[in-house]
Design a protein that fits this description.
The complex is a heterodimer of chains A (391) and B (313). By secondary structure, chain A is an alpha/beta fold. Chain A has 2 domains: 244 residues, Rossmann fold; 133 residues, 3-Layer(aba) Sandwich (Rossmann fold). Helix content of chain A is 41%, strand content 19%. Chain A has 13 helices and 16 strands. In chain A, strands 3-2-4-5-7-6-13 form a 7-stranded mixed beta sheet, sandwiched between helices. In chain A, strands 10-12-11-14-15-16 form a 6-stranded mixed beta sheet, sandwiched between helices. The longest helix of chain A has 33 residues. In chain B, the strands form 3 sheets. An 8-stranded mixed beta sheet of chain B has the order 4-3-5-6-10-9-11-12, with helices on both faces. In chain B, strands 1-2 form a two-stranded antiparallel sheet. Chain B has a two-stranded antiparallel sheet with strand order 7-8. Chain B contains 11 helices and 12 strands. Helix content of chain B is 38%, strand content 17%. Chain B has 313 residues and is α/β, with parallel strands linked by helices. Chain B has a single domain, classed as 3-Layer(aba) Sandwich (Rossmann fold). Chain B is globular. In chain B, strand 3, helix 2 and strand 4 form a beta-alpha-beta unit. The chains are: A alpha/beta (391), B alpha/beta (313). The interface between A and B is large, with 46 and 52 residues.
């Protein structure tokens, strides 16, 4: 029976990677991710985890070493954040296009300048199109469970793609939560050792990472797109099986008082839990409001999103990242785009907030919802509004 | 056994080709020759990690490949880091009983730009961490794949497209970065220079480097007729002149000790090397003298290091 322990989320992630019996961890320190890899280094040093810990000289090399380890069939894990994720940027595309399964925890952090080590989703949005499966977690338990699920999804021969698990820097990484840590034998059954189908091996020499001129590049990208889109089915199956074994259920889109509700708020990540409090409070006050929590970011769950908001009249989307000079937040743009061709659809109102570690309180979410309803009624001269700007 | 080898005088070299013909390298490419020879020395039990550059482009155009050994290319500047991951991955899997068969050697290959410029940090990191691998730099002294732009390995006075000779310029105004010394400064067990004009020396060094536990670095001068603007049929001759003029001496550094492999009683004048290449065609007598003086000085310094070793042993 799994034990429920009070543990810092970063340490729990490292323990989950240990339960997954990873072979290679390659990482570079960056706040707020460091506790994850420090703990992994400790587990290796104490002989509790039989893995190679490669303390590389940059995040670019961290991800590059992951490519090499994954290409020989090793189970590979890393973690990063903010600038580190940005330094990895070009390498991330290679991991997905070369079908190298690996798992990375991203302790979401704002991007410089000004330098800011605290949480928002700027880093996640900058790597949106890298071809990775991307999951957002709301609490420590979700991160731990998804580390295990992610290896299983990534290594599934129908998928063979890298997976990013996003968790909010500090808001999640540095808090101590009660978390059920699964037993090793349960994990071993759920997650058998990886069997990469085409590793680099002298017995069967392969050329990996060939040069792809115009006559083949488009076909390769089409194959990659089809592969990532099809991965959703495997993700759903994996979550279902995880739920049946471990008793915790996951889905790409989660509703909270969202059925038949006219006004919905949509959030991603740890803010969802605060938003739920706000929804409770407003519903107690007799307001017809609900919440949609988006958990699977890539592949984007079009059908689930359309289904979840089909009865709503107003959909307020909060982004923790900004697309400068553009339509506001990337999440809002994508939701709006996903709904545009629907016969009936809610008005989609965009807010940007919670940047660089700025918190949004329960009353803050109430303000956002109230203002969103007002904009839906009266319209706004702005494409989106930024919440909480001191003027 | 004999049937598998080709007799070259007193030496025997395997007939097996691991970097096969049919690749798209330019006529007279000494880098392709160097890769071919290096692969013969490495044999089949190897995983090659290749940087972006000429060799990747000419050898791996989908759906063809010139490689009959496991080979991976990912990006430009990360070759040593990818090799780190390959080495750590296969060693761990071997230890955990999940690597079937013999453990292969890991070899990284990159050009001079991928080594001395954009890939220097990743290389330094991998050397410092002590991964068990061989890194080979195929140095053709500029970014040839993108059309002959200068790198930090381009020699003083050479004209490239980004260090052009002109009324106000002699071409490259900096002296070639000393990559073997940088590699050696990491206190790695084996560093060597080589040139395919000296094929047995090259193969010996590659074999020695890959057999050395821990990191090894071999820096191979690779004549590029396209970028150096020289006759393709002179590529081997020009490589030999690079050594005989003292411009590119062949040596090894083991445990910090220098050893000259081709000892020259008298250096040929640098003009013999320079005059065969269009990239140096614009040089004045004064600049050539500057190069000659520098080469004499550097060669004397190298001799001193090598002699100091000989004297102390």
């Amino acid at each position: 029976m799994a034990k429920r322990v009070g543990i810092e989320v970063s340490l729990a992630i490292a323990e989950a990677a240990k339960l997954a019996n990873v072979d290679v961890v390659s990482a570079y320190p960056i706040t707020p991710q460091t506790h994850i890899v420090e703990h992994l280094a400790g587990l290796v040093a104490d002989g509790e985890l039989d893995a190679a810990f490669i303390p590389v000289e940059s995040e670019h090399s961290a991800m590059s070493a992951c490519l090499g380890a994954s290409a020989v069939g090793a189970r590979t894990f890393t973690a990063s954040a903010g600038q580190g994720l940005e330094l990895m940027h070009e390498v991330l595309y290679v991991a997905s296009a070369m079908r190298l399964p690996m798992v990375m925890a991203v302790a979401n952090r704002a991007l410089s300048a000004p330098i800011n080590i605290w949480g928002d989703h700027s880093d996640a949005m900058a790597v949106r199109d890298t071809g990775w499966i991307q999951i957002f977690a709301e609490n420590g338990q979700q991160v731990v469970d998804n580390v295990l699920c992610s290896f299983r999804i990534a290594e599934d021969h129908r998928v063979l793609l890298p997976v990013m698990i996003h968790l909010d820097g500090f808001h999640l990484t540095h808090v101590i939560e009660p978390i059920y840590m699964p037993e090793q034998d349960e994990v071993d059954k759920f997650l058998p050792p990886p069997q990469y189908p085409l590793p680099l091996h002298p017995d069967k020499p392969l050329t990996m990472g060939a040069f792809g001129p115009p006559y083949i590049y488009t076909e390769m990208k089409k194959a990659q797109e089809a592969n990532l889109t099809a991965a959703k089915e495997v993700i759903l199956q994996c979550w279902q099986e995880f739920g049946s074994i471990f008793g915790r259920d996951y889905s790409p889109v989660e509703g909270y008082h969202s059925e038949q509700t006219k006004v919905l708020l949509l959030t991603m990540g740890s803010f969802s839990e605060t938003a739920m409090e706000a929804i409770d409070k407003m519903r107690d006050d007799g307001k017809d409001v609900g919440l949609i929590r988006l958990r699977l970011w890539r592949p984007f769950p079009f059908a689930e999103i359309r289904q979840a908001v089909k009865n709503a009249e107003v959909l307020i989307v909060l982004d923790r990242a900004i697309s400068f000079g553009g339509p506001g937040g990337p999440v809002c743009s994508e939701i709006r785009s996903a709904l545009y061709n629907e016969d009936t659809r809610p008005k989609v109102i965009g807010f940007v907030g919670g940047l660089g570690g700025r918190d949004i309180s329960v009353s803050g979410f109430e303000e956002i919802i109230t203002r969103g309803i007002e904009i839906a009624r009266t319209g706004s001269e702005q494409e989106f509004e930024m919440y909480g700007v001191r003027e | 056994m004999m049937a598998d080898k080709i007799a070259f005088g007193k030496r025997l070299v395997t007939k097996e080709e691991y970097f096969s013909s049919g690749h798209r390298a330019c006529v007279g490419c000494a880098e392709a020759l160097a890769v071919r020879l290096a692969c013969k020395a490495l044999g089949p039990n190897v995983i090659i990690v290749n940087a972006t550059g000429c060799m990747e482009v000419v050898s791996s155009q989908f759906p063809y490949t010139a490689w009959s050994v496991p080979w991976i290319h990912t990006l430009f500047e990360n070759t040593a880091a990818v090799a780190s991951g390959v080495e750590a991955g296969l060693k761990t899997m071997k230890r955990k009983g999940r690597w079937p068969g013999q453990e292969p050697q890991v070899v990284a290959m990159a050009g001079d730009g991928g080594t001395s410029d954009i890939g220097l940090q990743a290389l330094s990191g991998a050397l410092e961490r002590g991964h068990d691998f061989l890194y080979i730099c195929f140095d053709n002294e500029a970014y040839m794949n993108t059309g002959v732009q200068r790198s930090s390995a381009t020699p003083f006075g050479a004209a490239t497209t980004t260090s052009p000779a002109g009324k106000e310029s002699i071409g490259q105004v900096t002296w070639k970065k000393n990559m073997p010394a940088i590699a050696a400064a990491h206190d790695i067990p084996y560093v060597a220079t080589a040139c395919p004009s000296y094929p047995f020396d090259l193969m010996d060094k590659v074999a020695k480097g890959v057999a050395t536990p821990g990191p090894a670095y071999v820096h191979i001068l690779s004549v590029c007729p396209t970028g150096w603007r020289c006759a393709p049929e002179l590529a081997v001759e020009i490589g030999r002149l690079a050594v005989q003029t003292g411009i590119f001496p062949l040596y090894e550094i083991e445990g910090g000790q220098y050893k000259l492999n081709v000892k020259l009683s008298k250096l040929k004048p640098v003009t013999e090397y320079l005059k065969l290449q269009g990239r140096f065609g614009h040089l004045s007598e004064a600049t050539i003298k500057e190069i000659q003086d520098r080469v004499d000085r550097e060669y004397a310094k190298l001799m001193e290091k090598a002699t100091a070793v000989a004297g102390s042993s």
